[in-house]
Amino acid sequence: MNLPIYMDNHSTTRVDPGVVEEMIPYFTVHFGNAASRNHSFGWDADKAVEVGRERLAKIIHADPKEIIFTSGATESNNLALKGVAEMYAEKGDHIITQVTEHRSVLDTAKRLEKSGIRVTYLPVDREGLVDPEEVRKAITDRTILISIMLVNNEIGVIQPVEEIGKIAKERGVLFHCDATQGVGKVKVDVQAMGIDLLSFTAHKLYGPKGIGALYVRRKNPRVRLAPMMDGGGHERGMRSGTLNVPGIVGFGKACEIAMEVMDEEAARLLRLRERLRSGLMGALEEVYLNGHPAKRMPGNLNLSFAYVEGESMLMGLREVALSSGSACTSATLEPSYVLQALGIGIELAHSSVRFGLGRFNTEKEVDYVIGRVIETVNRLREMSPLYEMVKAGVDLKQVKWRKD
Ligand code: PMP
Known about the structure:
The chain is an alpha/beta fold. The chain has helices at residues 17-23, 25-28, 40-60, 73-87, 103-114, 132-138, 161-171, 245-283, 310-315, 337-341, 346-350, 363-382, 385-391; strands at residues 5-6, 67-70, 94-98, 118-122, 143-147, 174-178, 197-201, 212-216, 287-289, 300-305, 320-321, 323-324, 352-356. The chain folds into 2 domains: 5-9 and 263-398, Aspartate Aminotransferase, domain 1; 17-257, Aspartate Aminotransferase, domain 2 (3-Layer(aba) Sandwich), CATH 3.40.640. Strands 2-8-7-6-5-3-4 form a 7-stranded mixed β-sheet, with helices on both faces. Strands 9-10-13-12 form a 4-stranded antiparallel β-sheet. A two-stranded parallel ribbon has the order 1-11. α1 packs antiparallel against α8 and α4 (73-87) packs parallel to α5 (103-114). It binds 4'-deoxy-4'-aminopyridoxal-5'-phosphate.
């Protein structure tokens, strides 16, 4: 087993060697511009782009013509929300989303609010799920878009997208889904799920960084978007700019591999996740699972270790790449807005650690992490006066803390 161990696969993934292999000739041999119509370099590049488009379409059950390449899911989310807001301005000015979306949806929605769009941010329940009935109730005659993610990037919960899609169709409202964390991990079907726009990105499914896509429905209904990027009119005029051919080749190959291995990989990751969960929860007291226990993607485990700061834990575990629920880069050490939205309280939000298991993790690594986390939590709790008080039978809720 090699150190350090990478267990932060929601942040990004290692590129699959099969993906790299397929990309390489597109840097040095078939390096043409896919928009060059007059020579074989251009034709070869264009052919490769179309193969990529087909593979992307297949993994989400779409038509290749409905795939628009972007630089990543951040751009796809921006294009979906801003593109709809501008294009459908005459139809309405209201968007519905929810509080645990990725920043690239929430911050885009906030920016649109500045230009007069009204946005409803639906709450989630204690397990991180949005209620489809709340979506239904929020729709008005002015609603032009519903944007709800498939899989949450922190707690891994899977939103009831199919039900929301049905409601959107009934009411004739467009439905955008940020499926960045879901594609290649769980089944995605834009037809069955009633999705009109869908964002995804290669680097979350063992493909390269800097290449993403937006699915844009062409039939029932035909979705139109105002472009964010003006220029040569690439990608049906919705996203100008020379295509990233090697990136597209890699993204396509990553989708192809994911489709082949998805069932087996999901079962394996679920086993590893349950091994990790029971290994930690069986050995340590006061460990809490964040997010719905069953409606979550296989590779995700988000736990709060009471009386232990997530950040301190990661500092004590430098040879394992994990993620904590606190943004230590911010001046205020603000705990994650996703965990706060669950209502678990600020202390437990600060105590959270996200384990992101992926294709290249092994059982040996999981066992090593279990051992090291137990060791670290015990050591930190030994140093915690609060934990000592609790062990001595003090009810912290009854304690009156002096302010002076
Ligand atoms: N949406 C979700 C749910 C994500 O997890 C991420 C990546 N953290 C993004 C969007 C942004 O993707 P990209 O890095 O490709 O811009």
